[in-house]
Amino acid sequence: MAEMPYAAAVNRALAEELARDERVVVLGEDVRAGMFGTTSGLVQRFGEERVINTPIWENGIAGMALGLAITGMRPVAEIMFADFMYLAMDEIANQIASWTYMTGGQTSVPLVIRTAGGAGFAIGYNHSQVTEASFLGPPGLKVVAPSNAADACGLLKSAVRDDDPVLVFEHKFLYFVPQEVPDEEFLVPLGKANVLRSGDDVTMVAIGSMVGKALEAAGTLAADGISVEVIDPRTLVPLDQETIFGSVARTGRLVTVEEGRKRGSVGSEIAAEAAEKIFGSLKAPVARVAAPDIPVPPGPLAESMYVPSAERIVETVRRLVG
Amino acid sequence: MTTQGAGETLAVRSIDTQTLLALHRKMVITREAEQTWSDMLQKREFYLMGHFGTGQEAVGVGLGHALEPDDYLFPTHRGIAEYVGKGMAQNDIWAEYYAKTAGPAGGKGGLHLSDYRLGLIGLVGSLGADYAISAGAALSTKLRGSDRVVVVSFGEGTSSQADLGSAMNVAALWKLPLIFAMTNNEWCELSPASEHVCTPFVAPRAEGYGIPWSVVDGNDVVAVYSAVRTVVERVRAEAGPYFLEFKSYRVGPHWSGDDGSYMCQEDVCAWQERDPIAACERRLLEEGMVSAGEISGIKKAAQAEVAAAIERARGLADPTYEEMLAGVYSGAPAGGGAREVS
After folding, report:
1. The CATH number, out of the four listed (3.90.770.10, 3.10.290.10, 2.40.50.840, 3.40.50.970), of the domain defined by the range B17-324
2. CA atoms within 13 A of residue B320's CA, in its CB half-sphere
C-alpha cells in the first residue's frame, strides 16, 4: 500500500473513472491546470472534450452539470472553494435536488459536484469555510465528506457511479497530507460509516478534517482511562444511523466534532435524530464540538482559535464523563 | 420593426396548407385550454394557479412545432403553447396539472411539466435557472456528436437574470447548438418592461457576444415558425448559438390571481386587434385553405378535446402517501465491478 496525498488520490479516482466510462467528463474553473492538483494532468491524458475549463460561473457549472446529466453524460463538476457553493445554490438546492422527483423518474441525475472547504490558509471569510451542513436539507442530494486519502478516492469513485447527484466536500488542508491508499482499484460505498477506533464510554462522530483530531483526542483520553469510539460517517446524507446509534446504545454518550459552525451544523442534525430515536440510551446530554457562530476570522492566530482543537475535544469529553 | 443595431432579417418562407392548419389548431387548443383553466379558477373548480399567454400563442406554438421531437426545449412558465407546439397531448398535460399518477411525470411535475419522449426535459420555477441547464444540454449534444439543437425560451423579464449573459458567453465560446428564444411581451410580471429593461429590444445584446440575432413578429405564427426553421437549420449546420426575439404582447394579466388593472387598456385593445389566432384564421380563409365552417369546427374540436382531457384527468387515480414519498432518488447505484472495501 503506497502513500499518496489526498489530492493525488482524488486525481487517481477521476483518472480511473474517466478511463472506465466515456460519458464521464470533468468541468470547472481551471480544471486543466488544477488549482490544488486534484485535476492536473487529466487533460493531457483524456483531452479537452473530457476535461473542460469553464468561465468563472459557479451557478453555471452546477447548472451545466445538470444539463449534461439529464442528456446522457455523467459530469463531475468542480466548485473551487466550498464557500462558492452558495453561488450555485439555486441550481443545487432548487433544480439538481428536485429534478429526479419532479420528472417522475423519467430521468436520473448522475452528477457529482466536488468542492474544497476548510481553514488552513488563514485567509478567512470566503475561502475558509466548510459548508456541507448547508446541503443536508434539500431532498434528493447525497453528501459525502472524505476525511482521508483512501476515502477521497473510493467515495469519489462510488459517487461517479451513482445515479443520483452527489456533493463531495473535500478538505483543502488535507490535500497535501500523504496517507496510505490501496494499490489496486477499490470503491468505498456511499452511506456506510467507518469505525476508526473502538471504545466503551463515549461515541465520537467526527467529520472531515476533524477525524484526525478526534483520534488524537481519543488517544489522550485513553491515558485518563476514558475509552472513546471514533466514528467517521463519511457520508452525511444518507447517514449511517445504524452504526452511529448502535454505538451510542452501548456507550450512552454522544459527541459530534466538526470544523463548521455550531448553529445548523451536521452535529445538530445528528443530535436531533439521537434525541428522537435513542433518548433512552443517553446517560449524558449530547455535546457538539464545532466552530463558534462567527465568520471565519483572518490571520493564523484567530484561525487556530476558531477551528476546534484536540484539546477542546478532550475538555468536552472530560466534562461529559466527569 | 425598429431595433437597436443591425440584426438579421429572416425571410418568411412559404408554408403549406397542412402545416398552417396544424399551427392554427395548436394555437386554438392552447387558447381553449388556458381559457378553460382560467374559467375553472374563476368558478373555484380548480386548484392550480396559472400564468396565461393569451395573445402570444403564436410564439410558443410556432417555436415548438418547428422543432424535431428529439430537439430539447426548455419552455417558459407562461401558458402551454410551447408544450402543445412540441406535441404534448392534452391528456398528459391535464393529468400532470391534476397531479395524477398517470401523467408522464407520475403527477410529480404539476405546473413543472416534462415529457422526455418529446424533448421536453423540465421546467424551472426559479426563472433563469434554465440558461445554465440548457447550455449543459447543448454541450452534451455537442460532446455526443448529436445533431440535436437546444432551445431555451424565456421572456424579457427573465432577461435580467445574470445567467443569460453567462450562458451567451459559453454558448459563443464553445459554439454550442443553443438557441436563445425570447418573447418580448412588454410585461414583466405586474410591471411594464420599460421599468425592467433598459432598451426596447434585448436581442441586440447578443451582438456583444458575437451571436447573430433577429427580431421576429411574434404575433405571426408563420413568421415565428419560419424563423425557427431557418435558425435551427443554421445551428445544426454551423454549430453556434443564435438569439431570436419575438415581439408580442401579453393581453391578459400575469397570473390568474391578478386582474390586470395596472395595464393600459388602449394598448391591450390595440394588440387584441393583432390577435395571432384571428390573423391566422383570416389567412386560412383568404387563401381558400379552409371554409368558415371548418374554422368553427376546429374550435369546437379543441373545446371537446380539452373538456375530455380534463374529465379524464379528474377520474384518474390520485397518488397514495407512499407514492408521494417515493422517487426522491433514482434507485440502486449503477455499479461498476470494482470491489467494495469498508
Report:
1. 3.40.50.970
2. 3
